């Protein structure tokens, strides 16, 4: 259905491309009559036209609009350009939708890693990159300088829209009840309570927010000459910012490739800490709460007695089977793990002689190390720690459970998005490739006409092209991503909220490095002037405010959506005031 609509729209677009008419020969006449061009121009009564108004002077004739590619439709009227912006915007939205659908199919076949790290982020930013590129490549340097503000408007508008309107909306639709500052999956009984309702994300979302905040560094570099009120070195600063931006793009892609492996390692470590916490609590119950002596140090005498309790065959060693029996006998809540793998990690911690068993001395050293680690992590130490053994172990246990949850473990039925084996991998691969090619082709074909139309609308209405591209173009290039994020957030789970906000941070990061790299390359190669101080300031404010906020907390109460929403009109107003009141641009 979508493909039929696209074909119909393209057909309508092309049949309205040009209008033909016959020129009327104008000859001097004292009667005020002109020939209609029939009968050789003789002024016969049946072939004359009464002139109502005189022809305008040659210098007042309206300049004809220039057709993109020589055949695309164009107009000088405001209403006509609105229609063309809607048409081209829909086509760019369609391109983004095809690219997104093709990327998801490709991900099903090849999985994360190379595809998720390299191709998906770049394909998501492709429509924006295309529009930015054509805005600076059109015509001569003077024309490019005037049109490049469309690219900057799109770059700033996409970043601001994702971090304000879309971020706030995802917070509203994804809100759940907050219990102990953590969202409860699929429970939304608090309504729109500003403090007791909100979303919780995993720790990887915080990392994504920090990367997003770091990605604004090239903006600062390219802006340094203006900040220092220097007219020299501007071309050099563009080159340095370009090199840094490309380097950050490569680094980010490498990180994305290895991020699933890093996440698995972090999750395995968190599970091991959870096992340590469970064993310490179990040993504490059998030691009657006296694992520490009166000086707050591990009590070796009590630990040796615990060893004798665990050593079932009384041979002075704990075998792998005895350690596994210990783990099985402990009730681990809200965690599923491989028992044999947990035994292997325990042997790594305790067995220093590498004989695949733990003697009493190794057990004492290992438990002492665990206790000191738990005391340090929970903040309880000193000579009075003995009476608080239960408290510091409970604190350590709570911390390990929270750390495990924040890492986003999805082995307990949380992974609704995972599907089974792909039914026909060959066909799915072909379909993904066709969708990607079609999306890229549409984006490449209609990016230039859309930029020209924005400039024509700006000329017809007197509205600066920056504000048109800031508001309208992101709706076309990011709408599919925005709708997908909102639908995903509405599932009201920590996992889906984490993926939603991570994707938003990732999209902004790609804007700040990939799209900016394209923009800086055009400015440097064509020798254009970098004069976007107010736009850069807006990007810095929004990215740093939302990035700092999301970097150091994993729960977003409902009141935080008002911060996000308020940044959008603030950004528009700030650019207008700085540019048209203070003359920054």
UniProtKB/TrEMBL annotation:
Its main location: membrane. It is a multi-pass membrane protein. Residues 1-21 form the signal peptide. It is found in: Endomembrane system. The chain crosses the membrane at residues 78-98, 105-126, 146-167, 207-224, 236-258, 428-447, 467-489, 501-524, 530-550, 562-582. One of its GO terms (molecular function) is calcium:proton antiporter activity. Residues 298-333 form the EF-hand domain. GO terms for cellular component: endomembrane system; membrane. It holds the Pfam family Na_Ca_ex. The keyword Calcium applies. GO terms for biological process: intracellular calcium ion homeostasis. Keywords: Antiport, Calcium, Ion transport, Membrane, Signal, Transmembrane, Transmembrane helix, Transport. PANTHER family: SODIUM_CALCIUM EXCHANGER MEMBRANE REGION DOMAIN-CONTAINING PROTEIN, VACUOLAR CALCIUM ION TRANSPORTER. This is EF-hand domain-containing protein.
